[in-house]
Design goal:
4 helices
Length: 102
């Protein structure tokens, strides 16, 4: 790829929109995951008695399902990213490839 072709892609409105959307999506989902994870860590640090309290009459503490929920949230956020990428980012990428191919 020549430097002129690279510059044409970088200046293309579809590429700029693609880069903005991808960054916004990635940073947004990262912020949600970090908030969940650090919220759990802060709960462990400042209210360990809440997470150590058994659920009902059983021996399983509340911390176990909360930890599993955080792992499942990570999987769900991955699904959100894939869905949004397939729905919004891939069409922009295809448009960019069509219009910038020599």
């Amino acid at each position: 790829m020549t430097p002129q072709q690279q510059q044409a892609i970088l200046n293309h409105p579809a590429f700029q929109q693609l880069a903005r959307r991808k960054a916004r999506l990635g940073w947004g989902l990262s912020a949600v995951m970090l908030a969940l994870y650090y919220g759990f860590i802060l709960a462990l640090a400042f209210t360990p008695q809440w997470l150590a309290r058994p659920m009902g009459a059983g021996a399983t503490p509340w911390g176990m399902p909360v930890g599993v929920a955080i792992i499942l949230a990570a999987l769900a956020l991955t699904g959100v990213y894939v869905r949004q990428a397939n729905k919004h980012l891939d069409p922009l990428n295809a448009q960019l490839l069509r219009e910038c191919r020599p």
